[in-house]
Amino acid sequence: MRIVVLDGHTLNPGDLTWDPLKALGPCEVHDRTAPAQVVERAAGAPIVLTNKTVLSGSALAQLPRLEYIGVLATGYNVVDMEAARQRNICVTNVPAYGTASVVQMVFAHLFHFAHHVGEHSQSVHNGDWSRSPDFCYWNYPLVELAGLTMGIVGLVGSAARPPSPPWPSA
Fold it and tell me: pTM (2 decimals)?
């Protein structure tokens, strides 16, 4: 089965190998695919993998052999799900691939807002600490996180769920 990766650079800018995927069958990896190239590149392939390259309803209509679309990201927004459902094309995503990265970024922002590290660094580089009359210098209040309570507000519900897959559930 021929496998086509439409935007491989977003997934592998050169630090990984495509060999495990290529071991599954003939595989073409395109760094980037413009909208006008989607049909040409995916023609005849039963498997297409994408990250950000859009698979529109009109493109899907021109790909009669397409059976599976793997969205290599957390959403489905790059695929016309109604067109895929009508054609019985299986569409999957990777809902938790970035969980650890998101947690790490949350803590990076938490520490940023508590200590303004970037602004402090820039201020020191500008000579503000050297000109300070005090040994201890800061240009923003420092927030100690020890003993504080953090609340997380988010949305869980039908708006956060992906559409139902186009195949019957087991």
Answer: 0.69
